[in-house]
Amino acid sequence: MNPAAVAPTSHLDRLLARLEDARCRSEELFKIVLPSALYDRPVPERHRIIFYLGHLEAFDWNLLSAPLGLSSFDPGFDKLFAFGIDPVDGGLPTDQPKDWPAVERVREYGNRLRETLDGALRELAVKDPQLESLERGRLLEVAIEHRLMHSETLCYMLHQMPVARKLSQPAPAPRFTPARGVRCVEIPAGTATLGLARSENGPFGWDNEFEEHRVHVPTFAIGTYNVTNRDFLQFMRDGGYTRRSLWSDSAWDWITAENRSHPSFWIPEGYSWNYRGMFAEIPLPAEWPVYVSHDEASAYAKWAGKELPSEAEWHRAAYGTRSGVERAYPWGADAPTARRGNFDFERWDPVPVGSYPEGNSDYGVADLLGNGWEWTRTPFEPFPGFQAFSFYPGYSANFFDGNHFVMKGGSPRTAACMLRRSFRNWFQPHYPYVYAKFRCVEH
Length: 443
Hints:
Helix content: 25-40%
Number of strands: 12
Order of helices and strands: HHHHHEEEEHHEEEHHEHEEEE
Oligomer: single chain
Radius of gyration: 22 Å
Low-confidence stretches: 1-7
Shape: globular
Strand content: 5-15%
CATH topology of the largest domain: paralog of FGE (formylglycine-generating enzyme)
Largest sheet: 4 strands, mixed
CATH superfamily of the largest domain: paralog of FGE (formylglycine-generating enzyme)
Number of helices: 10
């Protein structure tokens, strides 16, 4: 598709350019998987990789075809590739590679969907320049961000694959470990503004980002840096995984049933540890943030005599200022760039904590955006005034079950558009494959 075929200054032109960029991001991932590995299932709770090759195109079609007046040419594939699996949903899939269509058929399906959608979108530029039939462009925003989300969550799966099943990519230049300052900072009592204000022409947000509201946050202290692999090793050496008192009932059931005794990104190597990077197994990087499940982060915090921050506390540390004015980003109003943090597909793995001092908040808290999502202790629930998307009613509402927790921030593979202050991510507490780090608070 050539987005320039549309009026170069139109809203649709900008959306189509972003959609094409998002497509390139997802294609980049499928290209690093060896053809023989496309039917692998790197994470037991997830679909095989072949599903996602079809899902990204089917989602766009299922979302956009009706508003564009298009008829399906393969209803079976539209349904087969419609929905993924919520990780740890109570059962593991049992399908076999032979149960899935051939790669060639899936690619043909996806190519035809793209060509048909792109042609209809070009025609729309003339008939409906305000994009009223696409809810003023909101449906395209959904398609773009959905694909970018999968460009991250697919990495969680690919990260678990043996290195030999992937084609390595050029490694970015390493960053030097900075000199770190104080390990904890006090955040004075103040207001945290959560969510987005609803308006017809306002910025895009997912349904769970609305409505904007303010929360009073009492004084608390928060870790300036994320808990590192080195820190977490101390927890393990002190018997963290064997001390029942540190774990909730469901967490204890999980680690005992799964025989878990270390983070999923760590690999035992004699009396030491290696780290599972995306393209290489390396000695455990002591100063990288530790990636763990919510259960493991909560157990560490309890061991340390602290707890995870609430969503509002995290916001206060990230966007609050000593003057009382809240910022758009921790560092200020400027858009995210590579100087501010490890995000927007810049790298495949983390870097040492504190590597981006230009991304610090006004209170000096480091790495709030990038280098890994951050767990909070806040269950994923609707904000006051929540309204489900009419075209995707279950996007958030299906997960308001008390069994998911809010994550904030972003990872190395999080797109810049989803670094906005109101964006909320969430996962179940037992899922160990997310690029999720944490820091602790004291009251």
